[in-house]
Write a structure and sequence with these properties.
Layout lengths: L1 H28 L1 H40 L1
Length: 71
């Protein structure tokens, strides 16, 4: 359950960051572009969060294995 909550929070953080960056870049062009770019940025951020999560768990598993080997 804890892992699932962490995954949801990670996705929300990445989506918020992507939306902010997209809105800022789109805001240079105009109001409509800012809205569209923020939506696209949020989707990209959420997608990246899904791709980053497996890498994080793999790194954690490797660090746990190396700690067990050291003992």
């Amino acid at each position: 359950m804890r892992e699932r909550i962490q995954q949801v929070l990670r996705r929300a953080k990445f989506a918020a960051f992507g939306g902010a960056i997209g809105g800022a870049v789109g805001g240079i062009i105009g109001r409509n572009a800012a809205s569209t770019a923020a939506g696209v940025g949020a989707m990209v951020g959420a997608t990246l969060a899904e791709k980053v999560a497996p890498a994080d768990s793999f790194r954690a598993r490797l660090s746990r294995d190396s700690t067990a080997d050291a003992e």
